[in-house]
Hints:
Blueprint: E1 12-18, E2 28-33, H1 36-46, E3 56-61, E4 79-91, E5 97-115, E6 121-126, H2 136-140, H3 147-165, H4 172-183, H5 189-196, H6 201-209, H7 213-237, H8 243-259, H9 267-277, H10 279-288, H11 294-309, H12 315-329, H13 342-352, H14 357-372, E7 380-384, H15 391-402, E8 406-410, H16 418-421, H17 434-442, E9 448-452, H18 465-472, E10 481-482, E11 489-490, E12 496-501, H19 509-513, E13 516-519, H20 525-543, E14 551-552, H21 555-564, H22 572-595, H23 606-614, E15 622-623, H24 626-633, H25 642-645, E16 651-658, E17 661-673, E18 678-681, H26 686-701, E19 721-726, H27 740-752, E20 760-762, E21 765-766, E22 772-773, H28 778-787, E23 792-796, H29 808-813, E24 815-819, H30 822-829, H31 843-849
Parallel strand pairs: 1-3, 7-12, 7-13, 8-9, 9-12, 14-15, 18-19, 20-23, 23-24
Antiparallel strand pairs: 1-6, 2-5, 3-4, 4-5, 5-6, 10-11, 16-17, 17-19, 21-22
Helix pairs in contact: 3-4, 3-7, 5-7, 6-7, 7-8, 10-11, 11-12, 13-14, 13-15, 20-21, 20-22, 26-27, 27-30
Amino acid sequence: MSSNSGIRIPSRLPLLLTHEGVLLPGSTMRISVDTARNMQLVKTRLLKGTSLKSTIIGVIPNTRDPELDTEDLPSLHSIGTAGLAVQVVGSNWPKPHYTLLITGLCRFRVSQLLKEVPFPLAEVEQLDKLEQYTSPRNTSEAATPEGELGELSQRFYQAAVQLVGMLDMSVPVVAKLRRLLDSLPKETLPDVLASMIHTSNKEKLQVLDAVSLEERFKKTLPLLTRQIEGLKLLQKTRKSRPDDDKRVKLVRAVGKVGKFPGRPFSLDEDGDDDEDGDDNTVLERKVKGANMPEAALRVCLKELKRLKKMPQSMPEYALTRNYLDLMVELPWSKSTTDCLDIHSARVLLDNDHYAMEKLKRRVLEYLAVRQLKSTLKGPILCFVGPPGVGKTSVGRSIARTLGREFHRIALGGVCDQSDIRGHRRTYVGSMPGRIINGLKAVGVNNPVFLLDEVDKLGKSLQGDPAAALLEVLDPEQNHSFTDHYLNVAFDLSQVLFIATANTTATIPPALLDRMEVLQVQGYTQEEKVEIAHRHLIPHQLEQHGLTPHQLQIPQDTTLDIISKYTREAGVRSLERKIGAICRAVAVKVAEAAPRLAAGDSCHMTKAQRVSSDMASPPEMPIVIDHIALKDILGPHIFEMEVSERLTLPGVAIGLAWTPLGGEIMFVEASRMEGEGQLTLTGQLGDVMKESAHLAISWLRSNAKTYQLTNLVGGLDPLEGTDIHLHFPAGAVTKDGPSAGVTMVTVLASLFSGRLVRSDVAMTGEITLRGLVLPVGGIKDKVLAAHRAGLKRVIIPKRNEKDLEEIPANVRLELDFVGASNLDEVLNAAFDGGFPGISNPVTLPQITSKL
């Protein structure tokens, strides 16, 4: 490798096939490597090679569509570029690949393909001289080509100088290009400039194939001239522009001319390009027209000033541009006008939802106050109730009533505070929180936001989203809510926030204190029947393509579905059962349709006609009675097992509250000879275990009064006796104090040998002195007793005020006993009262107090 003969590349080169572009000598190019052969080449030659020679590879342009690439080696282009791999970067996302930075050295021709696997290896012939680097002073002293080649070289150099002179010399890349024109040998300029100006891959391939220097000048000179003509035309049409703005436009125009070679420019097209091309000017106009607060406008103008100074290749350019786009799209001053017609709002709410009077009244109150005070802040409401009672749909109806936009944010399982407040822009992949994203989606600053399942928020190392919601849901703070991504205050005071939850037990107290809680209780059977015939059945008929002339479900059948196939506080299971009926009827209707077509019987054989008569189409409408209901839905899922369960002493019915609504709960007790131990089963919590010990202690202390005996007739119920207390549905965890009166009744029944009434249920907390204390969830518990067909409900006397929330028809069908002590509980739970109680209160006297 002497300087006289020039530098020689290896005679055998591994070949890298690329479809991303054409590498020319003297240029640098990034190439993504993800095919099997290319990956093997990188691993074997570039990563494991130790000599400089191992980093020289041959780059062959692959003209075949990469999506059609197969395991077969495509036909190789005869001429390629020997390149030096100066950088290798690997990554596993989105799939394993390498990125190579390769500098082109010289052309070569493939003489013979030596092997194809694991990567192509070929015998090559070097086509260009590869001289050692010489200083600009020595270059100027080099011999200048003569004749036609010298003339082409001089014309090309002059054109290159003219092109660079038309660009902004203050840009570092342009200044570097100008210096290269003076330092590089003229025979290398065609390859260098062809790789820098915007040309198609086909044009670059033609330059690569031009082996002789004269042909290379002839191929490249028209490309250079085309760029100059395009710039001249753009300069002519933009003389009225400021010089700085003009230079930016001219640099962008070079790429546009190169992408569409040979296509003439028109003034109209150039005008459109001016409107869309000057993004910064358009963005600045949008920022000033967004009517944002002074503080936000000041931040946006500062970011816009930084944006103008950034080159588009900088990663921060895209981040800043996305930030400004979001600030422009946010509804700083856009809002909808509320519909304040109370009469129309009441009609709309009544049409959308049956019952739910408390929720409707609260919405109408808000409308009335808005009529009197237009600057009223949006309330923070929280609907708490079992699933399926319509909390989410009520929120949607409220938005429709007010004429506002509606946006739902699901918070179930969210455990990162950034979901609420957003990420800081210093992080990679940062984005605003769900609140700001929701405002951007609806396009107004006074929508109805539904924060669904706020009781199911999580907590993790990324913060507590419930704590982040404190600022959002506080009327005294949310007028200046600051998202981490925006880093400027946004006014949320006009947003109507509605949260939904199944229980308030899991909501942090500080968050619960900021919301106005409205309880949404379960429905009675009568309400469910009404809801089914007003909303569910018409909706399911529409969903299944049926009409009321094809299917009818009487109210008695609907009541059977509610009582024997569903047992829930809401109506979701009821809607699913109605959907199952519609599907079954749809099959009958679809089967009957072909047989009802005119003229079909003319082409039937005798056997087919007899078969058709036997399977005649059903008469319309199809009415679902209890027989058809059993055929479609199967045997009854819920039977009235109450009377069968209470056939022995030691069994009573308690009432429990769950997030899914109220439930009845059977409590069973048995005794056997032993050492006076108490066994509790059924996955009971600590509070229930303590209630069981309270019940035992109270009965032992009053055993003589109530004539309670043990197995051998003694007055101590636990002497020589073991007690086992069980709560069925053992897989479900149970806790709470409200089962205290039920435990006392069960044990009193066991020790006295008397049966508890089979139509009575009870709830209440007890004390060691025999007092009955109030508990929660009375409405849900009473509705559960009503669903189960019970007739008497024993509640704490201090809970009598909660009976006002229960529908009047349910109160008429149930007898309520308000008990202040355990004597009254036992007297009401047994037929004829309980022995040992002086002056027993009779049922008429109890009910008359209510």
